[in-house]
Design a protein that fits this description.
Length: 375
């Protein structure tokens, strides 16, 4: 059933708010129809995924076509179950399992501190989560396809948890290309991430801002953008200076958030990078300095109050390395990582995929504590 034909009109790519006086709302009718069909799907996970907001996002991603939306949702339901199973099996503690994607710990980060620097750092003025990643902060310099799902999925799932307080449904993504090098040029990995976002997190991206892209980046961008649809491409903005970044961010972020982003990217460009910046998962020392974990109000609300794993829905899980610093074992590992960061990129035993796969000495305490017995 194509709702766009039934309604006769739609404010592309979204439905109109409603019909004229006395007319039914075509979007509401479509959602009701979707709810009846989705109820027939076999979705065993208790993670609050199949909400009205989810149905609306998928419906809009398929331009109101209910049949296509059901097909897309069915594919995502299967993908979510398969992905959770895979993340559990390949995780830092394969003998235990977590019941939700938001609780999964990236096995690469738990094995090697700072392997992935992507994390949530705050919100825009409408309550949309702001995700930030800087290549210069990564302790890994060669990225592969396996990385994308292991880290990106839990980040997106936890960002969605923070959306509920502001009733938002999208996120902002800031990508700092400082430190971007040959090992980062993996269009295949990028294509996997893009397809995952488009197929299983539709209508989530509000805007993306790319900053400090290096000379010659256009070739890589050309290869990556080929996997994007036109609507997604229009959401991407490039900023080549701090002034341009500030001008762009004031459109959607508070003064405090803008200042955090500008300071963060400025410190990440320093050579050598301050050890406290490289170890982005640790609180500032001395207190009161710039906190690479995130903007102050976000840190106070979602990081300082994190008391460990919890079963109820709505529990936010910070970056796995931030969780590790909240235990004695994590503090010792973080101190070691800071020392190695200060020693430079050639410090021993840090920058290989093999180490991330094999070294599980720094196992995730959150994963172990939150584990449940597999069915």
């Amino acid at each position: 059933i194509d709702v766009t034909q039934r309604a006769g009109r739609m404010a592309a790519p979204y439905f109109a708010d409603g019909g004229a006086a006395g007319e039914a709302d075509p979007e509401a009718e479509a959602v009701a129809e979707l709810q009846a069909q989705v109820a027939l799907l076999d979705y065993p996970l208790d993670d609050g995924f199949l909400t009205k907001d989810t149905l609306l996002r998928y419906l809009r991603a398929r331009s109101g076509n209910v049949k296509a939306t059901v097909k897309m949702l069915a594919a995502t339901v299967k993908w979510r179950c398969d992905t959770l199973r895979e993340l559990n099996a390949a995780g830092p503690a394969p003998d235990v399992a977590v019941p939700r994607l938001s609780m999964a710990s990236c096995r690469f980060c738990t094995a090697q501190l700072g392997f992935h620097p992507m994390r949530q750092v705050g919100f825009d003025t409408t309550g949309r989560p702001i995700l930030y990643v800087a290549f210069a902060q990564a302790t890994n310099y060669w990225f592969k396809v396996a990385d994308a799902q292991a880290h990106l999925v839990p980040v997106l799932e936890n960002a969605a948890i923070t959306m509920t307080e502001s009733n938002s449904s999208q996120f902002v993504w800031i990508i700092d290309y400082t430190g971007f090098g040959l090992g980062s040029c993996n269009p295949m990995q990028s294509s996997v991430s893009i397809r995952m976002l488009q197929n299983h997190y539709p209508e989530r991206l509000a805007r993306a801002i790319c900053i400090n892209a290096p000379w010659g980046f256009s070739g890589f961008w050309g290869a990556v953008s080929a996997f994007m649809d036109e609507r997604t491409k229009k959401k991407v903005t490039f900023c080549s200076s701090e002034a341009a970044l500030r001008d762009e961010c004031v459109k959607f972020a508070s003064a405090e958030m803008v200042e955090w982003l500008c300071t963060e990217q400025r410190l990440n460009k320093k050579s050598p990078m301050p050890p406290s910046q490289k170890a982005f998962w640790t609180p500032p020392d001395p207190a009161g300095e710039h906190d690479p974990r995130g903007e102050a109000t976000f840190v106070q609300r979602y990081i300082d109050t994190f008391a460990g794993p919890a079963e109820p829905l709505g529990q936010f899980y910070p970056h796995p390395n931030i969780q590790q610093t909240m235990t004695p074992l994590g503090d010792a590992a973080a101190d070691s990582a800071v020392t190695k960061s200060a020693a430079g990129p050639d410090a021993p035993a840090t920058h290989s995929h093999a180490a991330a796969e094999a070294n599980t000495a720094v196992a995730s305490p959150s994963l172990a504590a939150a584990s449940v017995t597999p069915e």
